[in-house]
Amino acid sequence: MVKIEFHDPSGRLEVTTPHAPRLASLEGKRIGFVSNEQWQAYRMLPLLKETLEADFPAIEVLPVDAFPQGNALIPTEETAALVEKSGVDAVIVGNAA
Amino acid sequence: MKNAVSGLGLAPDAAMVTFPIELFLPGSDIASVRARKREFYDGLTRWKSEFAGAAPGEKPLLSVEAASHEEALFKANNLLLTSLWGDGLPLWPATRTRVDWILKGSVLPRTHVLGKFPPRGGVTTIETCAIALAMAGGRPEYLPVLVAAVDACLDTESGFDQLQATSGGPFPAVIVNGPIRKQIRLNSGFGCLGPDPQHPAGASIGRALRLLQQNVGGALPGTGTMAIFGAMRYTNAVFGEDEDGLPPGWLPHAAERHGFASGSDSISLVFASGVTNIRRRGAKKETPEEDILNGLHRMADFMRTPNLAALAGYEKGTPGIMMIPPVVAQTMAGLGWTKPSVREFLWEHSRIPLEQMRRAGAPAWIEIDANPVTRASIDLDPWPICTKPDNIVFLVAGGSHPTHSQWLQAHSPRVTGRMITLPESFDRLLADADRDLGCGDDVCLV
């Protein structure tokens, strides 16, 4: 028998930041959107806001444009600081495709 | 995109709700957003990462066994393909022996970390590069160029994370200056953007870079990269500027763009999104002056298009690479043209009338650009395709034949330069190449 051993070419993955803890419930929570303003975000995210508000009467969902929008602005430290300062419990990030 | 978050240091899975592309088109029926609301709610409340974490230490070697070497090689290639690590062409399995051989081309230790390859975020070491180069059929003397190119890609200013993923499918074009381009048999002459058995370095280096983009960076078509067409993605474009063909007084690209000393080894990284051939030469009686001027106008005509992907590099990158063959450069220089004056001409004559921009819907893209300098350009009529002539990359390369120019339109926020560092044993590696491939000097080549 001939045996060939060779390297896995995919490189290691390092997890340095845990995903944010999930909420126990959405009731009474403050939710924000971070939007790249593309791919029908202007229709889909308001629909999601409306749906959340209908299903969770005590929820507060911030307007879609509460934070800077667009691919260039949403990954910035400035946007992250604004999100943190707003006191939201969670954000929905969209729309990618 | 299914793997973008791991490049940020998070576990590679994420709470995502994904929909078919039709939902994202203008006028679509978005009722399914409401119908699948539970997935959004679960994502915020119940979702847990299923990523168990990478095992510490070196990854175990893969292994295949068969009755013959040929059969084992066949099985190894099948394993690489079914693991989504191949490109459809035959691969060299990256055995310890082959990778150790390739590593002779590095001055840095194999464990040296260059960075995380976006968007997937695979940790990229010198060994990771050597593995890709081994798979791509490369040689140790190619490794310094590959490492410099990877280092440039991983520069946070390069915009590489988005370029890897975007639907336009930009590909790295790596321009090499300095003696190394000839020493390692990198093409700068006839067919410099394609295969050449006498100049095999560009194909291997570019293919290795592509394998890294896919296997370490996760740019797998349809999930890790949304490149709709994905042109030039087997080997990218790795080639040399023909410095021997530069007329007196014309500086190499690396010296002009990056300030690197003439005669030093370096790479310059541009992300291109297409290659267009331009029939530059005239057809009938014409003077040298007419030949050059008509050809320059024809080149500018090809550049005078609203390539909206190039907005990414409007201020600090480039709208593209214009390549002319050395024989044309010599004629130009004889008539008093210089690289800067050619760029000035091309910039001036590639300006687009605003009416043409309007009918193409181009102003809307300029209005939403993140860069205020780009946004402000909307007031200019005719609209220049970049802020200044020096943004245009203008090279002398290709076969010494006067008929064509080549325009590589760009999607390149920056043009990133890197010096190439050679190991002390480099001359020995070149001698080994002569032994294996025959004499590589100009006098020996066909």
Provide key terms for this protein:
heterodimer; A: 97 residues; alpha/beta; three-stranded parallel sheet; B: 446 residues; alpha+beta; 17 helices; 13% strand; globular
What would your notes on this structure say?
- The complex is a heterodimer of chains A (97) and B (446).
- With 97 residues, chain A is of the alpha/beta class.
- Chain A has two helices and four strands.
- Chain A has helices at 41-55, 77-86, and strands at residues 2-6, 30-35, 60-61, 90-94.
- The N and C termini of chain A lie far apart (48 Å).
- Chain B has 446 residues and is of the alpha+beta class.
- Chain B has helices spanning 31-35, 37-45, 69-82, 96-102, 126-135, 143-153, 160-165, 180-183, 201-216, 253-258, 288-303, 326-334, 339-349, 354-359, 362-367, 372-376, 426-437, and strands at 62-66, 113-117, 122-125, 171-177, 237-240, 266-272, 276-279, 318-324, 393-396, 404-412, 416-419.
- In chain B, strands 5-4-6-11 form a four-stranded mixed β-sheet. In chain B, strands 7-10-8-9 form a four-stranded mixed β-sheet.
- In chain B, a hairpin with a 4-residue loop joins β2 and β3.
- Chain B is globular and about 70 Å long.
- Chain B starts with 30 loop residues before the first helix and ends in a 9-residue tail after the last helix.
